[in-house]
Design brief:
The complex is a heterodimer of chains A (86) and B (168). Chain A contains two helices and four strands. Chain A is an alpha+beta fold and 86 residues long. Chain A has one domain. Chain B starts with 5 loop residues before the first strand and ends in an 8-residue tail after the last helix. Chain B has one domain. With 168 residues, chain B is an alpha+beta fold. Helix content of chain B is 30%, strand content 31%. In chain B, a hairpin with a 4-residue loop joins strand 3 and strand 4 (62-70). The chains are: A alpha+beta (86), B alpha+beta (168). At the A-B interface, helix 1, strand 2 and helix 2 of A face helix 1, strand 5, strand 6 and strand 7 of B.
C-alpha cells in the first residue's frame, strides 16, 4: 500500500472538495437574510513529497507521520479566493 | 465505501467538503441566534413600562409626580450584534480514501475522497501526534448583503405594514 497520490490529483481533489463545501453552504442558505461568504480560505497542509516517475504527495497524519517520520515533511500552502460568477 | 482502499483513515473524521460547509453554516446559525435575541429584546422592552417618580415643589409643599412610558419610548434599545468578519482556524489532519463509486464522482475527483479530523487532545493523545505537526485550515468569512429579491420583499412589507404609532 502506497499512501500517496499524484500531486495533481491531490491539489485538484482539494480544490473540488473546497468548492463542494462552499457551494453546498451557499445553496443551503439561499434566500435567507443571513448569508455568509468565504472570500478567502487558506489551507496549510503538512505533507511528504515523493518522486519516482511522478511527483506524489502524502498528507501528514498519525499514520504517515509514523511511517516517514516528522522530519521529512514539507509544507503546502494553498490560498483559495472567491471568484465571482461572471 | 466499505470496498474502498483506506489510507490512514482515522476515527472521527468527516469528509473535507462537509467540514468547510459546516464551518460556514455555523456562522449563519450564530448570526440567526443573535437576530432572534434582538427581536426578543425588542418585544420584551415593548412590554416594559418605565416609571420615574419625582417630587415637584409647590407653594404649599411638595407634590409627587410620575412620568411613565414604554421602555422603547425612553430610548432603551437592545443592541444588535452583527458578525462583521470571522476567521476560523482549525488544526487538522487530512486522510485520503480511494473510492470506486460512480455516485461520488463529483466529490472525489480522480477517485479520491478527502477526510479531515481536527487535532484535539483526544487525537493527539491517542496517536501520539503533535498539534504543532498538524495541518490547518483557515476560513475567513464575511456577511454578504441579502439577495436583491429578498430586500425588495422586505421593502414591500415595510410599505404595506408600517409600525403603527398611536395618536396622542
Amino acid at each position: 500500500m502506497q499512501p500517496s497520490i499524484t500531486f495533481f490529483s491531490f491539489v485538484s481533489s482539494l480544490l473540488a472538495s473546497v468548492n463542494q463545501g462552499v457551494n453546498e453552504a451557499i445553496s443551503i442558505t439561499e434566500g435567507q437574510s443571513n448569508v455568509f461568504i468565504a472570500p478567502k480560505i487558506n489551507l496549510q497542509v503538512r505533507c511528504t513529497f515523493n518522486y519516482t516517475d511522478t511527483l506524489t504527495v502524502a498528507p501528514s497524519n498519525a499514520t504517515v507521520s509514523n511511517l516517514y517520520g516528522p522530519t521529512g515533511e514539507s509544507l503546502l500552502n494553498l490560498e483559495f479566493k472567491l471568484k465571482p460568477k461572471g | 465505501m466499505s470496498s474502498a482502499l483506506s489510507i490512514g483513515t482515522e476515527l472521527a473524521s468527516v469528509p473535507f467538503d462537509q467540514m468547510v460547509q459546516k464551518l460556514l453554516l455555523a456562522m449563519v446559525a450564530a448570526q440567526d441566534e443573535a437576530n432572534t435575541s434582538f427581536i426578543e429584546g425588542v418585544e420584551q422592552l415593548a412590554g416594559t413600562t418605565v416609571e420615574i417618580k419625582y417630587k415637584k415643589a409647590t407653594g404649599t409643599g411638595e407634590e409627587e409626580r410620575t412620568i411613565s412610558g414604554n421602555a422603547l419610548a425612553f430610548g432603551i434599545l437592545p443592541t444588535l450584534l452583527q458578525i462583521q468578519t470571522g476567521t476560523i482556524q482549525i488544526k487538522m489532519v487530512i486522510t485520503m480514501q480511494r473510492s470506486s463509486q460512480a455516485e461520488v464522482s463529483v466529490k472525489a475527483k480522480g477517485g479520491w475522497l478527502f477526510y479531515s479530523a481536527s487535532v484535539d487532545a483526544k487525537y493527539s493523545s491517542k496517536y501520539s501526534y503533535s498539534v504543532e505537526a498538524s495541518s490547518y485550515i483557515e476560513i475567513k468569512v464575511a456577511p454578504a448583503p441579502p439577495p436583491e429579491p429578498l430586500m425588495k420583499a422586505i421593502e414591500k412589507i415595510a410599505q404595506d405594514a408600517p409600525p403603527k404609532i398611536p395618536a396622542d
